[in-house]
């Protein structure tokens, strides 16, 4: 963790994150339009995205120690037990949603719950211009290829959304939201119920700093189909 944080401190924190990424990805700025160069650029983006998520999570742990954990321990074991009855009961409880989001961050798959929350908010929109604006924001952040928080959706679902994004309705993301919900319910939720985060709550134990896990299987397959494994990026 210390090595990673040293790297993070070397980034210019006064610049926007996007500008810093651009410098790291493009280096000297010399153009190379070959197919190999595009693959290398995509590989760099994926690695940097994962690395920065890891570093941000480590910083979050360091800066939110005692106060954050004290708040978590206020959740009663009885409340936490109810979350284990169904995924819907977990998400419908404010503290349950926050705790599940915290768990997903340990697996670097928080984009799933953030997409689900964004869709819930989107369906409450009333003004036509607000619907268009929010739909475009959701599409660019979660749906389109190489989106910063791209969720795992099949090509057909993505195509349907892409064709309708210029004239969206309140139901434009229903299918995608349902697929992501099922993915979390069948995959992440089962691991959440076995995690230290949840078991500590139902046993009434003080919450411990969470450990980083591998990237969840919910990570978009398309992002890694052209990327060679290189563990040195984490060292």
TrEMBL record:
This is Regulator of G-protein signaling 18 isoform X1. Keywords: Signal transduction inhibitor. Pfam families: RGS. The keyword Manganese does not apply. The lineage of its organism: Eukaryota, Metazoa, Chordata, Craniata, Vertebrata. One of its GO terms (biological process) is negative regulation of signal transduction. Residues 86-202 form the RGS domain. SMART domains: RGS (SM00315). InterPro entries: RGS, RGS_sf, RGS_subdom1/3, RGS_subdomain_2. SUPFAM superfamilies: Regulator of G-protein signaling, RGS (SSF48097). Signal peptide: none annotated. It comes from the Eukaryota. The gene is RGS18.
């Amino acid at each position: 963790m210390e090595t990673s944080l040293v790297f993070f401190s070397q980034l210019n924190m006064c610049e926007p994150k996007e500008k810093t990424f651009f410098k790291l990805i493009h280096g000297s700025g010399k153009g190379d339009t070959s197919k190999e160069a595009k693959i290398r650029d995509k590989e760099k983006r994926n690695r940097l995205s994962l690395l920065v998520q890891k570093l941000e999570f480590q910083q979050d742990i360091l800066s939110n120690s005692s106060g954050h954990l004290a708040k978590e321990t206020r959740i009663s074991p009885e409340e936490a037990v109810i979350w284990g009855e169904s995924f819907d009961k977990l998400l419908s409880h404010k503290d349950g949603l926050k705790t599940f989001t915290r768990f997903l961050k340990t697996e670097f798959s928080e984009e799933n719950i953030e997409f689900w929350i964004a869709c819930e908010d989107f369906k409450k929109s009333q003004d036509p211009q607000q619907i268009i604006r929010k739909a475009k924001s959701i599409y660019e952040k979660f749906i389109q290829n190489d989106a910063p928080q791209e969720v795992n959706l099949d090509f057909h679902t993505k195509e349907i959304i892409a064709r309708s994004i210029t004239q969206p309705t309140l139901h434009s993301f229903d299918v995608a939201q349902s697929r992501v919900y099922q993915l979390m319910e069948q995959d992440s939720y089962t691991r959440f119920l076995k995690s230290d985060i949840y078991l500590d709550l139902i046993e009434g134990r003080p919450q411990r700093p969470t450990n980083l896990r591998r990237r969840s299987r919910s990570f978009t397959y398309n992002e890694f189909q052209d990327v060679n494994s290189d563990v040195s990026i984490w060292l």
